[in-house]
Amino acid sequence: MTLDNIASMKYFAPELILSIGILAILTVDLIVGKPDRKRSSLLAMSTLVLALLATLVTSDGVSRGLFGGLIARDPFTDFFKLLFIATTAFVGVAALRSRDTIEYQPGEYQDKESGEFYALTLTAAIGMMLMAAATDLLMAFLSLELVSILSYILAGFKRRDRKSSEASLKYVIYGGVASGVMLYGMSLLYGLAGSTSLSAIHAIKDPPLLTLIAAITLCFAGFGYKIASVPFHMWCPDVYEGAPTPVTAFLSVGPKAAGFALLIRFFHGAIPADVRSVPLILGLIAAATMTLGNLAAINQTNIKRLLAYSSIAHAGYILLGLVAGNDDGQRAILLYLVTYLFMNLGAFLVVMAMSDAGLGEELSEYRGLGKRAAFPALVMAICLFSLTGLPPFAGFFGKFYLFAALLSRGGTFNTALALIGILNSAVSLYYYARILRAMYFEKPTNEAPILEASLHRWNMGIMAAVTMGLWLAWTPLVDFAGASIVQWYPHATQVASLH
Amino acid sequence: MDPSLVTPGTLFFFLLASVVLISSVGVALAPNILYSAFSLLGTLAGIAGLYLYLGADFVGIVQLLIYVGGILVLILFAVLLTNKIGEVRLSNLSAGLSLGVPASVALFALLARVATSTQWPLTEEAAAPGTARLGDAFLREHLLPFELASLILLMALVGAMVIARRAAKEESRSVPEGTHDRLA
């Protein structure tokens, strides 16, 4: 069912509410004249709650094309809407106490630019929602650019910090090149289909294989850059290290998930993932991404850089679900993104809480953290075990579904890929254990206990609790993810006849 | 070449294409950044010509107004107003010619093969001025991208303000040492 512009408004309510909230935050700042971090964050949080309600109220499990088929509103979109609202809310709350985003002077918080910070973050949320909803190359490009531009600004948000500015600039240059390459690929697809709609691209009759593969590969430059997969990952360590920690946490979860949503739409909606060479290309990229991320992480001494390489490796694992190319693979990606949200945000929240308490970001500073700050160290340990994929933590179940989806497809290539994934998990244990060893088995250089802000403590507690207890709610979550996979096959009858 | 292809139209196309190509080479290779900026004039104007040649009148005019008239002038101002532009030290020299050249040649060969070997579906429509249709599309089937573009521009503006205002503040602060504590 495709709705016209007016009829679409009802199903576009979450994005509309967010836009109004953004304008409200900026306008209230202008009217009152005195920026206030608490007020801005309160406005942002209530906007997110309203958007959440609007999502739930208008969600009825039916797949609709909105605005004449430019974007879709289906369970898949709703799943990602919830994911993005949660990410933005957790990061927004954490940023309230973070001295990394908005300048902190001893004794007082400076509230300058806090309104802009929340407005920019909420806009990024709109961009991510639209990325997950895009069923048209034009919308895919525009929403991706929206998220990218906001990421550039947010990465450079830290005052008087060379690293932050450098991160922002590198991100801009890298992102510009990636977007340009992606547009070239999109122009080839447009040339073949005569339309930018994904369903029209799906319906291309007997596409010349060389052109199709070239177009897909070029498009992948843009998507791969968003999820930080090899060979488009180079920006990731520098940006994650330089950006303010709340922004790093946001970038490592939100835009990455949005990139995967777009990839799923692209490969399941426009190009059937079982078109001969597509799984091969994706598989090679996934293997390279996992391996490079994990091997490069081993020697890192900065904890944000280490987590950046770990997040590259995780993009590789998640790509395996795309290689599987079926509904199981898609469901596994959705499940993994949920577990990844909590375990990765949890790890970054610990880094954030510690740097707010005056601890540096070097791994050596984390020596003896188990004694100095018992709770954050415990949360970090839980998140790291989960990132490794050890049971009974959430990460284990996520990885299990990914590998299982791949193995159930059979074939030497898929089995080899799954083995590479498992080997990589073993490698990752090594560098995650370095953090654990520093925290629990090494003598601290300074014995003074570290007190984290209570807001951070609550936030970390939620992340750790979910990471540990997700298996309790695993069956409903699997059902929910299974019901949320892309249903929007506008040419469903043609797809059925092909197989 | 097939003689029937040599029409005034194709000659015009090759003329425009060579203007674009030569001036883009100039942008990339000019030793002085000012010459690069001026070479950009040929590239952008040539592309405007290509748009007009393809019958995209509105896009062509917009390209002239915004890129040639606005962005290029902005770039020139930025270049002219930047201090010490002559003594730019390139910290990342484009080394690795041995890898870069084959990679570029291979990419060019691939893209050229894609462009020439594919049977692109052609429309029967003759190129005609499309401004009216464009306006229609903005308010009907492409309303959402149109509005989204305005959101992107708004937030880019806000972001630019955040970054630029801070830079200006830093400058004014750096002169009187220690006074910023009272100001803040």
Structure description:
The complex is a heterodimer of chains A (499) and B (184). In chain A, 73% of the residues lie in helices and 2% in strands. Chain A has helices at 5-8, 13-32, 37-58, 75-97, 114-133, 137-155, 162-193, 198-202, 209-227, 235-242, 245-270, 278-297, 303-324, 327-356, 369-372, 374-388, 394-408, 412-440, 454-469, 474-483, 492-498, and strands spanning 64-66, 71-73, 104-105, 108-109. In chain A, the strands form 2 sheets. A two-stranded antiparallel ribbon of chain A has the order 1-2. In chain A, strands 3-4 form a two-stranded antiparallel sheet. In chain A, strand 3 and strand 4 form a beta hairpin. Residues 104-109 and 489-499 of chain A have low confidence and may be disordered. Chain B starts with 7 loop residues before the first helix and ends with a helix. With 184 residues, chain B is mainly α. Residues 175-184 of chain B have low confidence and may be disordered. Chain B has a domain at 7-63. Chain B has 7 helices and no strands.
Q: Name the helix and strand elements of chain B from N-terminus to C-terminus, one letter apiece.
A: HHHHHHH
Poorly predicted sequence stretches spanning 5 or more consecutive residues of chain A: 104-109, 489-499
Give the mean pLDDT of chain B: 81
The main sheet of chain A orders its strands as: 1-2
Query: What pattern of helices and strands is seen along the backbone of chain A?
Result: HHHEEHEEHHHHHHHHHHHHHHHHH
Which key phrases capture this entry?
heterodimer; A: 499 residues; mainly alpha; two-stranded antiparallel ribbon; 21 helices; 4 strands; B: mainly alpha; 7 helices; 73% helix; disordered C terminus
